[in-house]
Amino acid sequence: xxxxxxxxxxxxxxxxxxxxxxxxxxxxxxxxxxxxxxxxxxxxxxxxxxxxxxxxxxxxxxxxxxxxxxxxxxxxxxxxxxxxxxxxxxxxxxxxxxxxxxxxxxxxxxxxxxxxxxxxxxxxxxxxxxxxxxxxxxxxxxxxxxxxxxxxxxxxxxxxxxxxxxxx
Amino acid sequence: xxxxxxxxxxxxxxxxxxxxxxxxxxxxxxxxxxxxxxxxxxxxxxxxxxxxxxxxxxxxxxxxxxxxxxxxxxxxxxxxxxxxxxxxxxxxxxxxxxxxxxxxxxxxxxxxxxxxxxxxxxxxxxxxxxxxxxxxxxxxxxxxxxxxxxxxxxxxxxxxxxxxxxxxxxxxxxxxxxxxxxxxxxxxxxxxxxxxxxxxxxxxxxxxxxxxxxxxxxxxxxxxxxxxxxxxxxxxxxxxxxxxxxxxxxxxxxxxxxxxxxxxxxxxxxxxxxxxxxxxxxxxxxxxxxxxxxxxxxxxxxxxxxxxxxxxxxxxxxxxxxxxxxxxxxxxxxxxxxxxxxxxxxxxxxxxxxxxxxxxxxxxxxxxxxxxxxxxxxxxxxxxxxxxxxxxxxxxxxxxxxxxxxxxxxxx
Amino acid sequence: xxxxxxxxxxxxxxxxxxxxxxxxxxxxxxxxxxxxxxxxxxxxxxxxxxxxxxxxxxxxxxxxxxxxxxxxxxxxxxxxxxxxxxxxxxxxxxxxxxxxxxxxxxxxxxxxxxxxxxxxxxxxxxxxxxxxxxxxxxxxxxxxxxxxxxxxxxxxxxxxxxxxxxxxxxxxxxxxxxxxxxxxxxxxxxxxxxxxxxxxxxxxxxxxxxxxxxxxxxxxxxxxxxxxxxxxxxxxxxxxxxxxxxxxxxxxxxxxxxxxxxxxxxxxxxxxxxxxxxxxxxxxxxxxxxxxxxxxxxxxxxxxxxxxxxxxxxxxxxxxxxxxxxxxxxxxxxxxxxxxxxxxxxxxxxxxxxxxxxxxxxxxxxxxxxxxxxxxxxxxxxxxxxxxxxxxxxxxxxxxxxxxxxxxxxxxxxxxxxxxxxxxxxxxxxxxxxxxxxxxxxxxxxxxxxxxxxxxxxxxxxxxxxxxxxxxxxxxxxxxxxxxxxxxxxxxxxxxxxxxxxxxxxxxxxxxxxxxxxxxxxxxxxxxxxxxxxxxxxxxxxxxxxxxxxxxxxxxxxxxxxxxxxxxxxxxxxxxxxxxxxxxxxxxxxxxxxxxxxxxxxxxxxxxxxxxxxxxxxxxxxxxxxxxxxxxxxxxxx
Lengths: 168, 412, 638
Ligand SMILES: Cc1cc2nc3c(=O)[nH]c(=O)nc-3n(C[C@H](O)[C@H](O)[C@H](O)COP(=O)(O)OP(=O)(O)OC[C@H]3O[C@@H](n4cnc5c(N)ncnc54)[C@H](O)[C@@H]3O)c2cc1C
Known about the structure:
Helix content of chain B: 10-25%
Number of domains of chain B: 3
Bound molecules: flavin-adenine dinucleotide
Distance between the termini of chain B: 48 Å
Number of strands of chain B: 27
Number of strands of chain A: 8
Shape of chain B: globular
CATH topology of the domain at 63-121 in chain A: Alpha-Beta Plaits
Oligomer: heterotrimer
Strand content of chain B: 25-35%
Number of helices of chain B: 8
CATH class of the domain at 63-121 in chain A: Alpha Beta
Strand order of the largest sheet of chain B: 3-2-1-7-20
């Protein structure tokens, strides 16, 4: 089990305000400021998704940086690798937009820039101490913690249960 | 004693196995024998070598993704000619022998060249498989302004676009009624066909090459079975692949189209394994035996074989015979599982717009998702793959599957 | 001397910094704490891209999601943003004009003998206003004229045969023409507010430019409400004339019964001041030396302008008055009263007393103050303050020993009167000549609030300092005036240091001619936020004098720290009037490139005014100077 911090989701706290999405897009913009990012071309895009379930549950979803990451195995151009901080990252320079990673990701969290033909996903904001989405979440539905630290408070494994069943 | 691992074939399956073994076994000797002259590389990137957009070092496997383990001895230019799985000895074309404790056959596949078409051995006839092929094609293409491609599969489409990028006219000769017939029914392909036409590909469907016409400089035309001839200085054959099983022929290892592998990637003889394009595995969507030609499958199976070879019994869950994602002519598409539905007893839902096409396929009882085809918009394709592959119960999510509103929350 | 305080990033007012330390010590939650807790704020709200105008919503358009370009009904970002802005303008308009309407009712009741505690204090202004309204004055009793003025005022709220008189009658002829051409002359103040509510309803106006024109027209109605508010308050309570006063938290006195009057309308605060003056004995009996009335926010401005009542603090630091522990009652009417004052008061063992039935606060005591029974109601409230004093008199207080000298009391009338000491026949000539000669480069009006997002007062002081040095005549209203006064900009002793030579010469000449023995303060206090009308009145007078329209005048406006929707409507009418208007906080319009462009560029071709949105005070000052220079160039001045 790694000692690196991960982004965990407490779905019961999410209000669906989408502030995380805005913060994410801004962090992944050129200018890093909302009011100017909004005028950038191409517009920056978010790597966080907030899904909705009947009963009005809101479910933030983002790259889990899986231990056994199907995308990492599947990449046909060598663009996907694991970083020093255990994040699974896509190197836009090497990505050729074949979308194989999109096809194998069971979470549906790899985005596509169709114009540039590049895949993108959560990179846990390498330039920041706390990822932008976590910092922005007004209800602390997103937390940045080590697995250990998080299970001490509350363990809601949204990440692993799916993948343990994935072959490999 | 340290285990001696031998791996025949240094590509997706072989290298994935090698790096996985090294992760688990820090001391064993891992040797990869490859008949290619280049160090292992990402084969699907070969078209970029043809266009010249990338050089061979740019597409090297080593140091990327899962290929980051140390001490893997790759011997290039080494052709394995036979194996004695009882004595545990391999022989190479130069006559050298290699003893091993465990061996993996990851010899992959090669382009199928139909014998019915005469002249495919002429200078100027290629198929795009290796970086050497790409370099040779690039060389020939300098004196060529028109290439005829035989076959309308994904590989030939990639080759066609690479040539198009070099400002060379291309004509695809496709036996089937439509391109990509391996990956979809002809009716499904109209959006892609439109995009291909728009991109400037000339496509002739419903006809085949009869023979290649040559002169002193090699190819000078392709004669079709409808009696016409297309002048060209270059031909590229893309009519599927066949497994490279030659080196095990005559041994005790069972071959049936490909090398038979059990659910633990083992061959019929102890300490012998197979993975990748050369291996016969099973398709969880159909339950049938299958050989595939997929990088992702080769890597997954290679990892699995690596674990088994390193002494960690691991079941290979099989692969969908069809599991392709790509983008041709700016049109993304994904085809997974059973996508050929014409005339079959399957519950099929088609949803099309002028920019997107979606086909969702259930078994005939409508109780299980068995295939999905997305063109134009491939959002959340991975979830469909997951449902197909894991045979997930669908009663609660079926309408989402059909309406394409499925998301991760539905699995919680 | 003053070392780094830990609160400099929150406020530049040292008195407020001291109180923040105290609040922290006592675990009192302040607006700054709550702001921090609120972060991050919602980007949809920040950019104007959320809509709750119907029950199918709420909708928000994610500017970074190319797939989601409209709300559920199909309204796109431009429409959503324009609708939101319109509603802010309507809210601001409703507030200023509500204030004016309250005054009109008071005047009406007074004229009918139903509000004996009120009287006509400035009959000259009454007649001036009546004349503008074509109400006969000759030989008529003041109360009769007042009755007609009150009726005319109330009539301006609804649609009638004439346009809103307080709009059409108060601007230059050229402006009337421009506004008429654009269809921007309001038909009735309430009518315009209601029409904004109508057109921004689900499924009505979906043309962003049409919506913005609607907003502009509503803002002209806001000007009318403001102007009417000033006129009627001057009639009832007197037109300000220069006087000296003090500002900041040091104006609270440990030994006195401290009453903080907070809110806006002099209808309440005037009566409290009057009755408090009659209750000194009761205060003394309770052990106090006297009753010390201080103002907070605009009602404080109204009192300071007319009576020299000190201003305690303003806007974002209103809670700090209570944190001193010295306020015995905070008596409020409406607008800009943070509900949090009730809980801070509770922590400090004191009381907030609400007085208006449209503004009650849980945790506050309510004493309904009616015009008919105003003095009696006021007495009740003051008794509460005295009782409060008794409870706290032996407890420690923490009053920062900081006050600022203020000379206030400026109005169009008092400025013209002061100028007439230089040129009795042609009082505007000295001002006009100074502008022409370049001694005065132009005029900048500071208006608006403080905003918790900006270190309190920093934008006002930085921009004003730069403009004054460049010889720009600076006038201020509302919490803008409050801000500048708490930083000595209204202390005549500082005029020499603050102003450029040309401006100083003019201010000094006026001061000397008026027997002040020195210059006017560097910034002229024009009153409360409704009194932005005074800035309009002066600008119009000067424009008429020079024979030009407002959009040619070297006059700019700045709301560098706006908070209230009232600041939005004021800013918008400044633009409608033809002024370059700076806003120092991002308006919630960035979600629409179109709306942003209309407000900052396109509208220039229509009214001549435009918004300058610039959070950086140094850049803002430069942009304002540039705008003034452009205007000067347009007039052929160097
Ligand atoms: C141009 C192109 C594009 C492709 N694009 C995609 C794609 O987008 N997605 C996808 O999933 N798949 C794609 N593929 C298919 C994919 O590359 C193969 O499925 C994958 O490479 C199979 O890996 P493998 O390790 O099983 O075999 P191979 O890659 O075929 O490698 C086998 C290696 O073994 C060597 N070898 C064979 N016999 C011997 C011997 N006797 N002795 C020594 N060495 C031997 C071969 O020369 C070769 O180097 C593409 C293939 C090509 C050619």
